[in-house]
Fold this protein.
Amino acid sequence: MSDLPIITKQFSLKSKNTLGLNSQAEYFALFSTAQELEALVHWADSLTLPVRVLGGGSNVLMPERVPGLVVQASSDRISVVSRNEDTTVVDVDAGKNWHQWVTESLGYGHGLENLALIPGSVGASPVQNIGAYGVEVSEFLVSVTGYCLSQKAWLTIPKSECDFAYRDSVFKNRLKGDFIITSVRFELSNVFSPNLEYAPLNTLDKNTLTAQELTRFVAAVRSAKLPDPALIPNAGSFFKNPVVSSDKAETLKLTHPSLPVYPLGSDSAYVKVAAGWLIEHCGFKGKAFGSVAMYEKQALVLTTDGKALLSDVTKLKESVQEVVAQTFDIHLEPEPQLFTS
């Protein structure tokens, strides 16, 4: 098949996941076109191999061995679909680095500034419905295009069918392992109207702030709190901020007044509480356990020394979950997902 890209056998995924976990794929290939992806799927089918898609590797837990064919998008094109007085619609290829897209998005429109410096790729962003400082990617997403393995068909899934929720989507549930995202369509506002609800963004002056200044500010805040994966392997925020009832949060604040609580909406009976605060107050901040640790500057971040295995991460994850549950009666859910599940 002329469209078949280079396929590497027994490929190390250590550099392909930001936790730096030692892992090896049975087969690995990059694709840049629809024809290349179809050729790879056909090749894998001929050998009855499972096909797994890898994004930026910032939200996955890699086992030591990954059976089947691992594919990764390499194309990073940006193309304007339409523009009117209020908005600009843009298609972005799945292989585009997320932070690069946020930075470049300022040349097309606004809305993504709060999501600066989140690690990963554009193709992975809808899966997790990434968010930060009161903004989620789903707010500016129109549709997701990709290849459905079970149907052997190209599909464009509109936002209304993506089942977006807090750190969740249809791609983590019904379509998990069955849909390879190749591009994402965004609708950006032509008017800069920043969301400064969350600290420390609420210290900024909305009247004089520019989009470039907000993007740089968010990146600086994240850099101060989160280690660079290239220097200290990590997957960003390792646990989701748990959602609890407002009554439970108020009860907790009676004994822990400094517990950060975030509203889910004016009419919601539930709120989010800060997972990092819970973990820190259980004594894990800065504590190392062999090859893994909870970061000294932000207890929500699990780091490795680049020599860790999945089993090392799992042990620390379960330990944190157990102590937080015993102390606060709250269950923490990890953000990174097992790559082969």
